[in-house]
Amino acid sequence: MTKYSLDFKMKVIHGYLAGMGSTSLCHKFHIPSKRSVLNWVHRYQVKGFAGLKNCDKWPKYTCDFKLDVLKWMKENHSTLESTALHFKISSPSTIYQWDRRFETVGVDGLKIKRGRPPMGKKKNPDRTAKKNDKLKIASQSDQERLKDLEKENKLLRIENEYLKKLDALVRQREQHERNKRK
Questions:
Q1: Are 28 and 15 in contact (CB under 8 A)?
Q2: What is the pLDDT of residue 144?
Q3: Over the stretch 148-165, which tens digit does the pLDDT of each residue have?
Q4: 48, 84, 129, 155: which could form a disulfide with 89 (CB 3.0–4.6 Å)?
Q5: pLDDT one-digit tens code per residue, 48-82
Q6: Are 33 and 60 in contact (CB under 8 A)?
Q7: Can you give the pTM of this predicted structure?
Q8: Crossing angle, helix 92-104 and helix 63-75, to 10 degrees?
């Protein structure tokens, strides 16, 4: 179910086209953002009544499609709203999210899928046994590496303690010599 009905949107649009400002319409109809009003008006002017209808299903966009949309928007110096209308995307904020993810993560950011991943098939017992054997071999070498790292860690701690005590002795001697001078 949508937040605002088509009749409600049409009342707001007719008010805007009659000369009321988007801010005053927001106050009158208790709409939190004037961007919503302007978006409805723009969609109505471009597509008519059909532009205001919301889709019941959320479309799934491929990574290539998202890249094409972002590329077209950059090449044509287009706004989010006009790009959404051109590609028939219901909300400009969708394109904004794609752009942010593309800028921060890159192409991999556009491949992000929402929702729970599908359930996998039951595991094959033979395959699981082979994996366990590989893990045992790997764990033996990991245990050896762990022992080496623990030994190295112990030596570094001893060295650190030695350097701290040496530093304390040097400071103590310097303090003692300063006191002698006075």
A1: yes
A2: 85
A3: 889 999 999 999 999 999
A4: 84
A5: 877 777 654 567 888 899 999 999 999 999 999 88
A6: no
A7: 0.43
A8: 100
Q: How far apart are CA 12 and CA 49, in angstroms?
A: 13
Hey, which bits of 20-165 come out as E strands? none
Q: Is the pLDDT of residue 1 over 50?
A: no
Q: State the residue for tokens 């990574």.
A: 63
| Whole-number Å distance between alpha carbons of 179 and 175 | 6
Task: State the amino acid at position 79 in one-letter form.
Answer: T
Q: What pLDDT is stored for residue 154 in this prediction?
A: 92
User: Distances in Å between the alpha carbon of 49 and those of 25, 41, 52, 54, 127?
Assistant: 19, 10, 6, 11, 58
Q: Which residues of 91-123 are buried (b: 16+ CB within 10 A; e: fewer)?
A: ebebbeebbebbeeeeeebbeeeeeeeeeeeee
- Reading the block at residue 69, the tokens are 């949309």
The angle that helices 22-29 and 34-47 make with each other, rounded to 10 degrees, is 110
Residue with the larger pLDDT of the pair 63 and 135: 63
Cα separation values, 154 from 141, 146, 162, Å: 20, 12, 12
CA distance 130 to 55: 49
